Amino acid sequence: MNVHVSPSANEAARDAALAVARWLVRTDRPTTFGLAGGSTPRKTYWLLRQLDINWNGVTCWLPDERYVPTDHADSNAAMARAELTDHVGAELLVPDTSLASATESAAAYQDELLALLGDSDPGVVMLGMGADGHTASLFPETEALTVEEPGYVANFVPELDTWRLTATTPLLQRSGLLLFLITGTAKADMVQRVIGDAEPYPIREVADGAEGEVVWILDEAAAAYL
Ligand code: 6PG
Questions:
Q1: What is the DSSP string of 37-82?
Q2: H or E stretch including 19?
Q3: Three-class DSSP category at 125
């Protein structure tokens, strides 16, 4: 398993940015970049803005999204635009969360996303991990984990009492490079469970069946129990 431990969260963010950049510059053909949500990736997106990357052939997309308006504080689309794509002029494929239900939003996005991914070289997907072992919005014991096809689905998350939209495990597994960026002491116990003990939490399931390269980038705090 390709696990890289950086001394600090900032250095982990830098190492993730360099790994993404190396992937994006390796081809002149159209490719894709799946942007993790949450707070961890923000520093990486800021660093990517400083690098000399040709974003013309890169289409960004969202491995998961909250079922909220795109101007909502919880919107991953808003964060991706604010932290990266508006700055570098990269295209961002965004779910239409104005549709009447999370199911309709996910289904519409799935059609667009499968068309995009089918026409591009295998792309890089950056993902985070929650302390419960979820990645994207594939939370433990939720319905989306049962979907055996590459796709994008609505997923009710009881612990949050909310609907999320998420790429399915098989879709994430089709990535050319899966990059997990995990930092902070709050994640250390789960990091030990999924990496040290290979416990089958959603993030480990995604990693184990991945068709491409998988890289875990941790800081020392998150790797404390390994
Ligand atoms: C989201 C993310 C989610 C995130 C983890 C870690 O939409 O929130 O896709 O999977 O990566 O919850 O979040 P933090 O980076 O904020 O710890």
A1: -SSTTHHHHHHHHHS----TTEEEE-SEEESS-TTSTT-HHHHHII
A2: helix 9-24
A3: strand
- The residue nearest atom 10 of ligand 1, judged by CA position, is 136
Ligand 1 center to residue 40 CA distance, Å? 7
* Lookup: tokens for 15: 């190492």
Ligand 1 atom nearest to 127, measured from its CA: 11
Q: Is 37 in the pocket of ligand 1 (CB under 6 A)?
A: yes
For residue 184 and ligand 1, the question of a CB distance below 6 A is answered with no
Q: Which residues contact 71 (CB under 8 A, 6 or more apart)?
A: 78
pLDDT tens digits, one per residue of 86-95: 999 999 999 9
143 falls in which pLDDT band (50, 70, 90)?
very high
The model's pLDDT over 179-216, given as tens digits with 9 standing for 90+, comes to 999 999 999 999 999 999 999 999 999 999 999 999 99
Spatial contact of 192 and 202, defined as CB atoms under 8 Å apart: no
Q: Coil, strand, or helix at residue 127?
A: strand
In this structure, are residues 166 and 153 in contact, taking their beta carbons and an 8 Å threshold? yes
Interatomic CA distance for residues 86 and 82, integer angstroms: 6
The predicted model gives 141-149 an average pLDDT of 98
Question: Model confidence over 18-55: pLDDT tens digits?
Answer: 999 999 999 889 999 999 999 999 999 999 999 999 99
Q: Is 91 helix (H, G, I), strand (E, B) or coil?
A: strand
